[in-house]
Amino acid sequence: MKKQAVMMLSFTAAMALGLTACAGGPGVTKEPQGGVDQSADRYAPVVVQSGFAEKGGNINVLMSADFATLDPGNSNYVQTANVGQLYYRTLTMAKETAGQPPEIVPDLATDLGKVSDDGKTWTYTLRDGLKFEDGSPITSQDIKYGVERTYARDVYTQAPQELNSALTDDAYKGPYSDDDLEAIETPDDKTIVFHLKQAFAEFPALVSRSNTAPVPKAKDTKQDYTNHPVSSGPYKVKSYDRGREMVLERNENWDPATDPNRPALPDTYTFSLSTSQSTIAQKLISDADANAITLDSNGALQVSDAASLNDPKIKERTAGGFLGCIDVLDLNTETITDPTVRKAIALAMDRESIQVQYGGARFGELVNTQLTENMAGVTEQISDLDPAGKPKIEEAKKLLEGKDYPKKLVYGYSNATERFKNVGTVLQQNMKEIGISLELRPIPAANYYSTLAGEGMPDIARSGWCGGADSSSVRMTVDPNLGPSLDGKTYGFSNIPRFHGEALSKKMYELRSATGTAEELGAKWSEVYNEVMATYPLVPTMHSYTNSVVGSNIRNAQVGYFFGAIDLNSVGVAE
């Protein structure tokens, strides 16, 4: 799941960036930094009040902005995936365990799928007793229809595409204009068969994506489906006042006997959707609402809140964990067209100061790559960025000598997150030193990623890529972030920097059909990633470690490796 809304496997989701559970990962500094724990396990996962199993009560989820969408067919956002696991189910599921990449487990399906000898056909059988919230049975046709909707890119602009790109039918345009998606067969109500272009070992992870959430065709209201998606999970939408409040209540037609993955402890979840991050942080720190949590990134904590985490009473209410999320600064390759100019901009960035705006080392480590050492076949990552994040101003100036480059640029940031504005202030000073004036432009949080995908994409923008299910695949980080469109003719829909170099994009397009072992393919994708990154379409910054304070009644609070926030599926409340 690629970003941070954070987008997932496509902006923000389902394929993993994997780091081990308790290690800091490569390059963790050990120097003292303002009293922050520098021991080897400072990034170890922390679960608050684990082992709780009582049902009942309400959890208040405090958020600074509304969900971009609740429609599973139009979502590449980890926040939607987090809440989505409460009201929709998929063929398989990426199940979270604190500090670890999620495990792919069967969900609607009875197993992880049966694959043909050539690896190109996957067959799934549905569990018995599956029902929608209205009591009607969930069938294989409902799952197929859910996938078909994601092909209607004129309707669902943020629909996840990784599953679609693996299937054989590239010409299909969705159920509103075409009759049938031939790449998927439903021989009976409980069987669904996927036909792939080539063998795809990670396919069980692909069908954990929201594409395979069942949608009853008769209840499809297109863009309005986001207001009340029909539940196949333990909760359903009771009320939803966009931008203000949403309440989820129990779905009486969900049968826990069909679902070993969701404990469904609270009776209700109440989401407050317009509380400022500073207010959220203070409410959680002061325990003003004992039933409260937040899904905001970094637990909505501000830089000034970091010291409070040392208070033993607050520390015992603070869940923590490394995420499968790496933040980057995207450089719009359509407006900053010269790779040398992009390199100069990248070298001028003071990423060490950017880390400070995130709250310092307590909130994660600086990285020079989006790839991690445990990805199968990953090769050495080459970067001219300073490992410690220090700017290289003089080198940047030399690169710009004799160049015709833009003297004014725009940095866009989500208006709900103060630290992203502060990152812009750092960049503003960095760009000034190399002769570029940088305008800081706030973007409404709820529309942030749709703005980046449209005509409003600024010259520089922050995004995050959160992996999920497959922690070993290089492709599932490189292709969504930097790869071409499904037909290879332009940049891919979740490729925020809009990178499309004729030779390199063609190489990535052809690699999609390549065969070989995971190690062999990983090495090839690593190689092309190095080549693309030499043109600086984006600049890696932070591999995040989230600290999220919860109310004193909250139990089983863990930071999801994929979600980058409290895992809604695990929490309970003691009242």
Description:
It comes from Paeniglutamicibacter kerguelensis. This is Peptide/nickel transport system substrate-binding protein. It holds the Pfam family SBP_bac_5. The chain has 575 residues and is α+β, with helices and mostly antiparallel strands. The longest helix is centred in the C-terminal third of the chain and has 16 residues. Among the domains are: 109 residues, Alpha-Beta Complex (Dipeptide-binding Protein, domain 1), CATH 3.90.76; 219 residues, Dipeptide-binding Protein, Domain 3 (Dipeptide-binding Protein, domain 3). It has 14 helices and 19 strands. Helix 7 packs antiparallel against helix 9 and helix 13 runs antiparallel to helix 14. The strands form five sheets. The protein has a six-stranded mixed sheet with strand order 13-17-12-16-14-15. The chain has a five-stranded mixed sheet with strand order 8-9-10-1-11, covered by helices on one side. The chain has a four-stranded antiparallel sheet with strand order 4-5-7-6, covered by helices on one side. Helix content is 22%, strand content 19%.
Task: Give a quick precis of the structure.
With 575 residues, the protein is an alpha+beta fold.
List the helices and strands and how they pair.
Blueprint: E1 58-62, H1 78-87, E2 92-97, E3 100-106, E4 114-115, E5 121-125, H2 140-149, H3 162-166, E6 184-188, E7 191-195, H4 203-206, E8 235-241, E9 245-250, E10 268-272, H5 277-286, E11 292-294, H6 312-315, E12 318-331, H7 339-348, H8 351-357, E13 364-366, H9 393-400, E14 408-414, H10 418-433, E15 437-443, H11 448-453, E16 460-466, H12 475-482, H13 502-511, H14 518-533, E17 538-549, E18 554-555, E19 572-573
Parallel strand pairs: 1-10, 1-11, 14-15, 14-16
Antiparallel strand pairs: 2-3, 4-5, 5-7, 6-7, 8-9, 9-10, 12-16, 12-17, 13-17, 18-19
